[in-house]
Automatic annotation (TrEMBL), chains A, B:
Pfam name, any one: Peripla_BP_3
Keywords: DNA-binding, Transcription, Transcription regulation
Designated name of the protein: Transcriptional regulator, LacI family
A single GO molecular function term of this UniProt record: transcription cis-regulatory region binding
Location of the HTH lacI-type domain: 5-60
Length: 342, 342
DNA sequence: ATGAAAGCGCTAACAT
DNA sequence: ATGTTAGCGCTTTCAT
């Protein structure tokens, strides 16, 4: 485990000072003569020097590392989101520390605090609960993007402390879109499979669903609380049958996929007997049977907006990512996009 | 953005020195009187002090951060692996920096170098190619686990430099298991859908497949090169039909899922006409139609072994993770595990 | 344009 | 048991 070369060794080899090496490496803040710069670059190449980011962070107080906290990295949508964010951050010369809260609030608090320990210069936090724990929020002194539909007042303390805390508020619109589409298909009783009832997490989705139902003078088809898993969706199928609905909006794609399997087993035909749309879809929806109509978030765009917010200290209080519906078979839009992988 | 409290402030409040605060925080290396310890802990609570990890890293040379590089975080298997590793590392008080190489060697090199910049104390690298680029290997001065079936000689340079470089070598066995199972089902012509042909990446899987085919005096049913995506699997279906096989081993679950959709479309019945098994499966395989028989890696165990290797400087040269076959419908083992979510 | 030097917050060797 | 202090590698102010 040989020690890595330091700035000092580079300076010695280039016959100059560490200050100048620093100027060259960082392209400033002071000018360097072309000649000297060249010697320094050669010395860097010769020694294999790479700046030590711990030292850099210590002196500058900024780390070029962003933290991301998600409740379940094995959820394909969250994995996709994480990937999009990683790509965006990488292109801006940031690295990404990732924490998985396992959908548990206790663990989440601990994960966030650990990340803060690393002097991250920004935090992207897909919270488990809504609102997020106040005591953790109070510890945030860095630009933070909360990925959940938060009431502004929950953040007042954070705002006052001068932190940039932004918020994603789209799930409501996504749910509204999905429900509306089912209405357009002529569905009469539209149910909603949401998250576990003890969690407020999915309140926004439920609201969007109710918005659309109300707007079309229908009665809500009933709401089912289920874990955000394929198994959760699978098990909801039976309840759904009892509710005698003809359509359902699932809170996420995993539930949607589970639902399809459960309905198949229950002998319910999709989309003939029951239309299904899931939120937060990925390309995996192209390969189920039937293919699953979803509402997708444009994660690449969202990632870019998040990054903008974090490194420009933008004053945006809310980010509203674009959302679009991908009509496939499960809602009744037959023969669209089947297995094409888009 | 108020400055965070430092050790010095804690010391002042507790009326002691920074050294003692350090001893308390790190539980050593020197003893502290019970009384003093209590005052320090109170001061920490009062100030909200959290150690600055940049300073810690700088002085100690170790960072409590491990780097993970994967080719595609949106691949459910890799997402699961990343999650398992994150959980294991978290339980050992490590944090995880993650880089997505996007399955491109150029990007991969850059991602690895960026991680090295952060003084990570270990690297877990699911390489794009086999063997991994030598120039990058040569830069590794930290314990590293390469997740790919590497020839020992490719690492000789790394070993000589005293680095702990360990290797995962299981894919061959996984492929052998899968193929053998298809043989047991009486399949005669067993094909293999591997990775893109210009990549050696999947050589181990191909070897395991050939091992099993040879052991049963069958002729190989043909090999198809396809991207490691659902779309790749989907498009292989047509070629598979031409090969007139009665079984196939797909290199990963995404290909397997795509294959099922493609075969369905081509009017091929699974498992009646064609048996399908995919490697590196996840629980998602429980919800396809038919449910997809897979060989799974026990990612939790693997993660634990990896972590052991990284923080104990273990001398193990190879990690052989446990692998097990989950028989579902697609191979011909009907009515097993259908939608049960296990 | 270049260099000397003062820290950034922390750990641990070395006093006491 | 506790305190003092010398760096860890880097950035940047302040000379020159």
């Amino acid at each position: 485990m040989g020690k890595r070369p330091t700035q000092e060794q580079v300076a010695r080899l280039a016959e100059t000072s560490t200050a100048v090496v620093s100027y060259v490496v960082n392209n400033g803040p002071r000018p360097v003569a072309e000649n000297t710069r060249k010697r320094v670059l050669e010395a860097i190449a010769a020694t294999g020097y790479r700046p030590n980011s711990a030292a850099r962070t210590l002196v500058s107080g900024r780390s070029s590392v962003i933290g991301l906290v998600v409740p379940d990295l094995a959820n394909p949508f969250l994995a996709l989101l994480a990937q999009s964010i990683e790509h965006e951050l990488f292109s801006r010369a940031y690295s990404m520390l990732i924490g998985d809260s396992a959908d548990e609030q206790r663990r989440e608090a601990s994960v966030v605090e650990t990340l803060l320990t690393h002097e991250i210069s920004g935090l992207i936090w897909y919270t488990v609960a809504q609102p997020p724990p106040q005591d953790v929020l109070d510890k945030l002194t860095i630009p933070t993007v909360i990925l959940n539909d938060i009431e502004r007042e929950d953040l007042s303390a954070a705002d006052e402390a001068g932190r940039v805390v932004s918020v994603l508020a789209d799930e409501r619109e996504a749910a509204r879109l999905a429900t509306e589409h089912l209405v357009d298909h002529g569905r009469q009783r539209i149910a909603h499979v949401g998250g576990p009832s003890q969690r407020l997490n999915s309140a926004a989705r439920a609201r969007g669903w109710l918005d659309a139902v109300a707007a079309s003078d229908l009665r809500p088809g009933g709401q089912i609380a289920a874990p955000f898993t394929r198994q959760g969706g699978f098990e909801s199928a039976a309840q759904l049958v009892e509710l005698e609905c003809d359509a359902v909006v699932a809170a996420n794609e995993m539930q949607g996929i589970g639902l399809l399997a459960g309905l198949r087993r229950a002998g319910v035909r999709v989309p003939e007997d029951l239309g299904v749309i899931a939120l937060n879809g990925t390309t995996a929806a192209d390969y189920s049977l039937p293919t699953l109509t979803t509402v997708e978030m444009l994660t690449a765009d969202l990632a870019a907006e998040i990054a903008d917010t974090l490194d420009s200290d933008s004053q945006a209080l809310t980010i509203v990512p674009d959302v679009r519906m991908i009509a496939r078979e499960s809602c009744g839009c037959a023969n669209i996009g089947f297995g094409t992988g888009r």
